[in-house]
Specification:
Elements lengths: L8 H12 L20 E6 L7 E4 L5 E4 L3 E4 L5 H12 L8 E7 L4 E6 L5 E4 L6 H7 L12 E5 L6 E5 L1 H5 L15 E4 L1
Length: 191
């Protein structure tokens, strides 16, 4: 006997990926599952319960608010992890709740580009990007840029990690592996 999909989430994720032309397991740097962040917008659907089904923003503190369960931490979780957490909390009030979580608007993927570029700024991205992608968004390097000494500052919840990036190697023939994927919160510093 086949078990039904929990909340139709897998089917929803597969359909969304097919419509977007993407692989269902990608969407974040390195092919990891997407992690929800502050300012993202989520559509929470509870089957046969319109009163709880809502489109909610993730607050700057990483929490969302829903009827019955009040505040729930969403930031840092994948949509599937949040779905499971909501289903467990709602089980106190609803027998076998079928929950789906869909990220409808990505607003937490922000990277900054500083230094010797045409347009230094903080950029809000909608999907994964590489160092060369954000350098292009920033209008390219200035004539004074130290192309071999670009640094990516990556906050990891602890000490900031410093990653060296050599523009010349990344743009040379065979340098595809040098073009690093960026993570939300990264700062690209061009001396």
């Amino acid at each position: 006997m086949r078990r039904p999909l929990a909340g139709g989430v897998l089917l929803t994720a597969l359909l969304a990926a097919a419509v977007a032309g993407a692989e269902p397991s990608t969407g974040a740097p390195g092919g990891e599952a997407y992690r929800i962040g502050p300012e993202d917008t989520l559509q929470i659907a509870v089957w046969k319960n319109e009163a709880i089904s809502k489109t909610v923003p993730v607050r700057p503190d990483g929490m969302i608010s829903l009827p019955l369960v009040n505040d729930v931490r969403a930031a840092g979780l994948t949509p599937m992890e949040l779905r499971d957490q909501l289903a467990n909390k709602l089980a106190e009030y609803i027998p076998n709740p079928e929950v789906s979580v869909i990220v409808t608007d990505v607003r937490s993927f922000k990277v900054s580009v500083l230094g010797e570029v045409a347009k230094p700024a903080r950029y809000e991205l909608k999907s994964g990007a590489t160092v060369l992608d954000v350098l292009a968004l920033a209008g390219g390097l200035s004539e004074f840029a130290a192309r071999g000494r670009i640094v990516i500052l990556r906050p990891n919840g602890g000490p900031t990690k410093r990653i060296l990036f050599n523009y010349n190697k990344a743009t040379a023939a065979g340098g595809e592996n040098e073009n690093l994927p960026l993570h939300p919160g990264d700062i690209v510093l061009v001396p």
